[in-house]
Amino acid sequence: MPLDLKDGRATLTGHCEIVEAEDLYAWICAQDDPVVDLSAVGHAHTAILQVLLATRPRIVGTEGRSDWTGLLTGTLTVAPT
Amino acid sequence: MNPLLEQFLTEGRSLLEEASLALLALEAAPADKNHLAALFRAVHTIKGASGLFEIAPFTKAVHAGEDLLDAVREGDVPFTPDLADMLLMLLDQVSDWLDQLEAHQELADGADASADRLAAKLRQPLTEDSDTRTDTPGGAAPPPATGVWPDDMATEDKQRCAGEPECWRIDYTPDANAFYSGDDPLLTVMNTPGLRWVGTVAPEVWPEPGRMDPFEARLGFAAVACADEVALRAHFLYVEDQVQLTRLSTDATARSEIDGDTLALARDLIGSQRRLLAAQGAEQTAPARIAVARRMLIAIARRCDTGALQDIRASLTGLDPEAPEAETRLDGLAEALGTQLAQPAAPNEPQPDLEPDLGPVEPKTESRKAISIRVDADRIDMLMNLAGELIVAKNALPFLARRAEQGVPSKTLAREIKSQHDVINRIADELQTAVMKVRMVPVGTVFGRFNRLVRDLSRKLDKRIRLVVEGEDTEADKSVVEELADPMVHLIRNAVDHGLETVADRRASGKSDEGTIRLKAYQQDDSVIIEVSDDGRGIDLDRVRAKALEKGLVDADTLSAMADATALQLVMAPGLSTKEQISDLSGRGVGMDVVASMVRRIGGTISLNSTAGQGTTVRIALPLSMAVQRLMMIEVDGGYYGVSVDAVVESQRLPRDRIHRHRDNETVLLRQRMIPLLHLRDLFGCPPDTSKRDINLMVVEVDGNEVGLVVDRFHAGVDAIVKPMEGLLRHSECFSGTALLGDGSVLLALNLAEVIRCRWT
Amino acid sequence: MTTPAAHRPTALVVDDATTVRMYHRSLIEAAGWTVIEAENGMEALERALDRTIDLMLIDVNMPVMDGYRFLDAARTMPHTRDVPAVMISTEAQVHDAEQAFAAGANHYLVKPVKPNILSTLLSFFPAEERA
Fold first, then answer.
1. Are C56 and C86 in contact (CB under 8 A)?
2. Of B201, B261, B272, which has the smallest distance from its Cβ to C107's Cβ?
3. ipTM of the predicted structure?
4. Is a pLDDT exceeding 70 seen at residue B134?
5. Nearest of B516, B453, B527, B517 to residue B485 by alpha carbon
6. Do the Cβ atoms of A54 and B206 come within 8 Å?
7. What is the pTM of this model?
8. Domain at B155-252: CATH code
9. Which sequence spans correspond to the domains of chain B?
């Protein structure tokens, strides 16, 4: 289950598809202080990122995840390969 | 019609024109990458625009053409005449489809099938030749780096791109329903080849919580990638209508220096900020004034920073506008900034960053979409400037009215009004010129389509033809140029079909295999002259005479008395065709007579010149426009006539005994020149007036010939719009037209070329 | 966040003459900006309420509320107080300029503003200038 919603915390795991965006959005809007845990997320669909940017929940688990911190702050540097 | 579709039709046709020109040019010079690039770009743009409408067959066929061209560009498929034929077929089909769209707002039934056939044909070389790749170094030159680096990209990140051969900015704005099409823009962006940087582009405001449709795409991306264009375009192929690629400059030295205008304005602005800081304004707005002065100074420093202003910029940014003494410190910084900008920038200064916003702001070229008439931006600017000046001039009038109320002496007032009149007069003149200029388009816009015509004709008739175009930049009024196309098509067909010989015939008469058709345009006085000439067999005058007699166009007596040059003009008489074999090109009936009537209808004249065995030249003279002309007014036997001021060399009053007579010719010696005289009274059939001791002489020059016109009286010059003669008078060749004067009377404008011809014949 | 490609800087053009507004609009739009127009100071104050404005071009003489009074007021309003403003008028007298600066203008130009001056002026305000 890529999206786990419980006790005020949403945990995204692995590859998150677009369908999760709807549940995630509804859940975040219903919470007083939603927390989203991204520590185990792989790729998430644009719609998920869009939900996170539109609602700005508290994000945890992005330490060392420059891709997610970058995307959530708006700019992301990619090392040349 | 839907304005968007209308726009597409206009733009599509103009692109088609570009494409066929480029294609023909490419056929002539297959190695020229510029023609190929132009062709590809035009086809590519048509395809892109077609995606906006529900015309899938259209897009499909053009897309196939684009892919083929891409392969040619890459050197995978060689460019051959067959391939050119195929592409021309595509362009023809597209042209048909555009016509259908215009007429019915949709493609006709069967478009699908034709598109499939065409696409299959166009894709054939792609599969065939995949293993026989040529080694031509592929690709057109990459486009110039005109992109602007994303605002948020850190300088270090930009620097890391330095030295890369190609660097691109990608702006990806997904369609609202992109998710439904299965797109995941984030995934696409993250997998971009050579990706260096990604920025999210959020809408200005997100919907209220609970109000957002999470499946509607609102988030866009900006990205920077160091990869070549082809790879990037391929990567974004399926969303290319939502993606914009602009090339970025990675060459630090290519950054433009700050130009003079910017520097001058920057200095002015610094002065203004200091005055703003010093101004005695309202107490409560003082903090705002300091804040806005600071903001302006930061903008100036940023704009003008070539590396030396970093300290000042840092101080400005760090300065708290609410702090005590902020005003004084800001003024000090402004002064320092001014001093820095007063010094010429040191050359070879290290350029540590790649900040993009230093170059001049270039207006986006793409915003100049095709509309019905393409107007040079300079001309619009000129109009705008004049409109501005007119407003200013207008503002002086209430002031004058006030002066009049105040009882200023009428002499003073008259002087002031007169000087204001001078100003408005100048503006009106310039406005008039500017408006006429807007309507002027190069005749080349019509010439362009003849390349194709000649090519097709030459393939069909198996004649070898070279089309030479001269003076395509010559400009004429839009309506004149538009009307030009039809008669010219007939003339060119005639030249190819009847004028030029087959290769065998040409060889037999010792000519080169390749025949030449020459289109030449130039301006002569207020006319545009268009010449269509060929180096073919010329017109057989005996046949023309015989035919004219046979068809009963003239009687035998008239014909025998007719000079060759005049007899030649019979070709333009209705119903005379000398080519016995009717080909499918010129067909029956549409001959020179039709062309001649077309030309006359648009107020032009047409004449023909031919030498047997050497070729034929048809010369069309058309009015440039209905522009205002400045005319010198002259009086002859109580009537007023106008002479174009441009032609007037001088006006003189001379004693009658200065006239020399030699046989029937009269001349005067004026400044070592013999000037032949022409008494306008003679010309107009008025009784001669010998009562006065002096004659009034106006020396005019036409085509390098000077003639002295003897008139009764000179009058002031007038500005008038000369309209061509209508009705019965239209055959009086001595007059170019009529002009209405301010008092309602009518002035006849002299056609000097004809008047002088009368003098000689 | 990066400025969206579709989001352009915005100029507020305040002038009672339609032609002047059109003139300025065409020049400003050519530089890729968005233009908001107002016929006088009062209208300009209303127009400025719901927009982020990057530059104001203000005519001096206008009915209802003239340029000085408008600017004076704008400098007290939160969303316009630190928006750079250029006064544009037909009179080139020193006195007018002083009055403009006292009202909080950043610059003073005389009509008609030359296209190159205006486009150069706009180049001082790239999109990122907006905080």
1. yes
2. B272
3. 0.95
4. no
5. B453
6. yes
7. 0.36
8. 3.30.70
9. 3-131, 155-252, 260-344, 377-433, 444-623, 628-760
